[in-house]
Design brief:
homodimer; mainly alpha; Arc Repressor Mutant, subunit A; DNA-binding
DNA sequence: TCTGAAGACTTCAAAGCTAAAGTTCGAAGC
DNA sequence: GCTTCGAACTTTAGCTTTGAAGTCTTCAGA
């Protein structure tokens, strides 16, 4: 029998924290618990979103673009570089992604006639409809996820997360946010 | 002057929620606040981790592998498919990633002589050292991030996040977690 | 008007990932 | 013992993203 257990189970959050404490002296288990749970939770949520959007015939990547355009408000237009900044992509990646979405009829791309260097990406009615369908699924999932939290817990959670977010956003003013978005 | 504002600012969390409410009837702003903050926070944290590991000469992707191996406990060995499951990658991607890490001396790869179908990936002392350095930076960052939270807030946050995590993990038992890990 | 510089996007090559098709080895049935 | 099935990894082809180099347009100055 090998030293490498024949069936190495995925560690639970609790096991993971315990292992970290064994391997790294001076670790605050409470901090680690918060950070690890946050990371894992986010991954699971993205898997769930991915499943839902896949069912609608669009990728998670495309949904990100739809969201950014809708958030910009009517007439739902943004330039490729604005989109790239919001999504944390390079302009090159944005060019390709827009290519695909134009081919699928989710957005249109045209030159800005008032400044011919710029390009305008605009949501099509089909794109808006896809966003709406995805949004309906997403909100159902989100409500279900938070279902067991009391009103007080929701309030604290929202407030505390917002505070943490403000802290990192101030620290990384807008730092060209490249770099892998793992976990 | 174009309709597309010349300088479209990245929306703040509050602006984002407000925009969603305008565009989607019946949205619970509190739920959306929690979900959006979670997602944004996670992205920012990954950018921060990426910066730190890059400073150590390893990628965020490599750090993930080091973490999984250390978490498995001494003698820090796992098979490629175990690693792939933990990181949410395909076996093929794992093969390539291990190739690179072997070339950099972070891990070794050898056949399991007791079962020659299996392969054993083992952390090298250099790999362990890199993990330790990354861990030191990560914990400093994490302590700093949570610095303004009261003990009560930390307790609630940890408990609530754990509860949410349990809820999704039960719902997606271990669903081959493929699918994009965006955001 | 012409020139130079900067900005916005695109193109190209290379890295890293997925999906699907191999390989190789071990275990079970005949 | 031979065959077949299944498991664990690797290989191959195609796609998405990155980084760097290019193209086109605008603007400011000579």
């Amino acid at each position: 029998m090998a030293d490498t257990a024949p069936d190495v189970a995925e560690p639970t959050l609790e096991e993971q924290i315990a292992a970290y404490q064994r391997e790294f002296q001076g670790l605050d288990p409470q901090v680690e618990k918060i950070v690890s749970a946050l990371s894992r939770l986010n991954r699971r949520m993205n898997v769930a979103y991915g499943r839902q959007t896949a069912g609608l015939g669009i990728s998670n990547a495309e949904w990100e673009v739809l969201k950014a355009l809708v958030l910009s408000g009517a007439p739902y237009r943004l330039g490729p570089s604005d989109l790239a900044k919001r999504l944390g992509l390079t302009p090159a990646a944005m060019t390709h992604r827009i290519d695909r979405m134009v081919a699928e009829g989710l957005v249109t791309r045209e030159r800005d006639e008032s400044n011919r260097v710029r390009v305008i990406v605009e949501l099509t009615p089909e794109g808006r409809e896809k966003w709406l369908e995805a949004m309906r699924l997403a909100t159902v999932f989100e409500e279900d996820l938070l279902q067991d939290l009391t009103p007080a817990e929701r309030a604290v959670l929202g407030e505390v997360l917002t505070r943490l977010l403000r802290r990192v956003e101030d620290a990384q003013p807008d730092a060209g946010g490249r770099l892998s978005d793992l976990d």
